[in-house]
UniProtKB/TrEMBL annotation:
Transmembrane segments: none annotated. This is Transcription initiation factor IIB. It comes from Halosegnis rubeus. Stabilizes TBP binding to an archaeal box-A promoter. Also responsible for recruiting RNA polymerase II to the pre-initiation complex (DNA-TBP-TFIIB). One of its GO terms (biological process) is transcription preinitiation complex assembly.
């Protein structure tokens, strides 16, 4: 995956915790420097705003600029109240979150209700503000697609890294005019499927199709087109990537999850996964691990979560145990 998939970041006021991370980075930067007088170790003293030698006390640099905030915060609410900067840029919004939004509440700064005349004025301003945020057809397309991506990602429980990567993929498809003759929903769904795989938190095609407004065949076709045109380096999905999610939904303990990962690794090493559905391998490994750790996991529940048949679980279950024995004995 190239650097173009890394969402841009903007500078924010650093919190006391973030400022501590900066101090640690400065200490790491000084690790290779020595004192000009005695060749001793150079350290940075934040309280005195100076850099000095730990051995002889020679001050190498003083009156350094404190780039942290002038305020302190002791909880997240206090931090948000005192911060004077906005949210960072995000690929999840068509304008990357840089535009302003007029609040929907008809109240002034003191919480008092607006008059009838002022409410009408604010409604007109909101309408024009919304129109100016999408100046052309491309921005309207992007706004609709990102809204669809966020809807599907919320239904699938996808974290922010997947959403950000998906937003970048869709923007690149739009810039390359790849949507000609294709639906917005189809390209958005294909980008979400590709983004989840690129972030090593894959969702199955059936899971994505279940929350999409287009059918599975169109998703497959659009995904192949997207991967080819953007030259995405898609490696085969590792069955181990599904285990954590399946184990969490079944409420399996850590011991069962760890054992299932070991079985999956043994199956991959023995080549059992070749030509097989990675979801079936993961589900069968989890079922085998549950049996080995005396956990009561019902095949019907596991098959429903993984969206595979009970026959698949039973067949792969035997193959995985045989592969684990061969690897341990070999």
């Amino acid at each position: 995956m190239t650097d173009s998939f890394t969402p841009p970041r903007v500078r924010q006021e650093s919190s006391p915790e973030e400022h501590g991370e900066t101090d640690e980075k400065e200490q790491n930067d000084l690790s290779g420097k020595t004192c000009p007088e005695c060749s001793g170790r150079i350290v940075h003293d934040e309280a005195q705003a100076e850099t000095h030698c730990e051995d002889c006390g020679c001050v190498v640099e003083s009156d350094q600029i404190d780039r942290g905030p002038e305020w302190r915060a002791f909880d997240s609410r206090e931090k948000n109240d005192r911060s004077r900067v906005g949210a960072p840029q995000t690929q999840q919004l068509h304008d990357r979150g840089l535009s302003t939004v007029i609040d929907w509440r008809d109240e002034d700064a003191y919480g008092r209700s607006l008059s009838s005349r002022q409410r009408k004025k604010m409604r007109r301003l909101r309408k024009w503000d919304e129109r100016f945020r999408t100046k052309n057809a491309g921005e309207r397309n992007l706004k609709h697609a990102l809204g669809e991506i966020n809807r599907m990602a919320s239904a699938l429980g996808c974290p922010d890294p997947i959403r950000e990567t998906t937003g970048v993929l869709y923007r690149q498809a739009l810039e390359k005019d790849m949507l000609r003759g294709r639906s917005i929903e189809g390209m958005a769904t294909a980008a979400l499927y590709a983004g989840s795989r690129l972030e090593n938190a894959p969702r199955t095609l059936d899971e994505v199709a279940a929350v999409s407004r287009v059918d599975k065949i169109e998703i497959e076709r659009t995904y192949r087109y997207l991967a080819d045109e953007l030259e995405l380096e898609m490696v085969p999905t590792d069955p181990e990537a599904y285990i954590a999610r399946f184990a969490s939904e079944l409420g399996c303990p850590d011991e069962t999850e760890r054992r299932s990962r070991e079985l999956t690794q043994a199956a991959v090493e023995a080549g059992v996964h070749s030509g097989r559905n990675p979801v079936g391998i993961a589900a069968s490994a989890l079922y085998a691990a549950a049996k080995l750790t005396d956990q009561d996991v019902i095949q019907n529940d596991l098959a429903e979560i993984a969206n595979v048949s009970k026959v698949t679980i039973r067949n792969r279950y035997t193959e995985i145990l045989e592969a684990a024995d061969k690897v341990s004995n070999g």
